[in-house]
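Objective 1b of the project was to move from sequence-level analysis to a structural picture of ligand recognition. The entry below was assembled by the postdoctoral researcher (A.K.) and checked by the PI before modelling. It contains the amino acid sequence of the target and the SMILES of the bound compound, pyridoxal-5'-phosphate.
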Amino acid sequence: MALVNENFLRLENDYLFSNITNKKNEYEKNNPDKKVINLGIGDVSLPLASKVIEAMNKATLEMSEKETFKGYGIVQGYSFLINRILDVEYKKRGVDLEEDEVFIASGTKGDLAGIADLLSIDNKVALMDPVYPAYRDVNIMMGRTNIVYLNATEENGFTPELPKEHVDIIYLCSPNNPTGTVLTRKQLEAWVKYAKENNAIILYDSVYEVFIEDESIPHSIYEIEGAKDVAIEFRSYSKLAGFTGVRCSFTVVPKSLKIFDSKGEQVELNSLYRRRQSTKFGAAPYITQRAAEAVYTEEGQKEIKENIKYYKENAKYIKNEFEKVGFTVYGGINSPYIWLKIPKGMNSWEFFEKLLNEAAVVGTPGVGFGKCGEGFFRLTAFSSKEDTKEAVDRIIKLFK
Ligand SMILES: *Cc1c(COP(=O)(O)O)cnc(C)c1O
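Corresponding predicted holo structure:
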């Protein structure tokens, strides 16, 4: 009798996004004349930079010639890309990493699951509430039940205090999805200190770092002294350069990062991760890695920064217009996410219904990200400028 891995049965249904889609579809069926605008999506809408397309085309042609054809890649990723990452993403910010500390792969979602493989299910894991659902679900799929939630509330600026109890693994996300807030240098220093004192490690998701505009905010956790001993960093080309469909990411696993076996002996995660990747992953496609390399050309940088600017203007428009009619708005400055405080007397699903039924606009109820998200609503800046403006104008008319 083939038995299922019951950890998968412990997952909650993907209630949030399927519920949103169902309600949207039903509204559209009943109101065929209304154009629904979706400010709920966490996917980019602008096409890839022309430099990226050029590089992919060139790499594709290379595959057609015997002399330049590429078969299985290098598990870690090609040097041509890793060296650009070391220079542009890290050296520029005073962070020295070695080539074999960076692992190229096909998206941070998979990387989060890959790293989770290396960590005993006996660890106590700290997640924020509200949380990016993949952190929670990856842990549940692994059978890890020892999870504590740290409340990210308006009172603490959506930055939970250090846990009072001991935890072994801490997920941090800055700029944060869904709250749009960032961790300051001081807050990161406190987390690194906590991790050192507690023999804990930090899984640092900074896929939205390119949206940071406040110069005092670190882009990498390795800008904090000592972080290389306690932190793994996740980055992706998805939001940075619109690769949500192309798929390319990297994970930094410093060689000085050590955890423990059951006898208390130190174990280096870098070599274990290489072993894990060669067995379970393979390598990211050559064509994709050439595409990511092109992001670092002068022209490529210019193009992706223009796209980020476009999304940030949407974010500012949303934030400013809502503030004008008296809403309290978080995020939207160093992030493509706007975390709206819902007016008194409505919960986040009621607010969702109001926006859908009276303005034909879809957003994401905060409670879908955790109980502390109740009373909040997430809007994203990834739609077109025209749609963003129209959606916001329709909503604020309801509250004037
Ligand atoms: C979009 C997103 C990612 C990136 O996922 P990919 O698999 O690289 O596309 C990672 N973390 C957060 C918080 C995200 O919102």
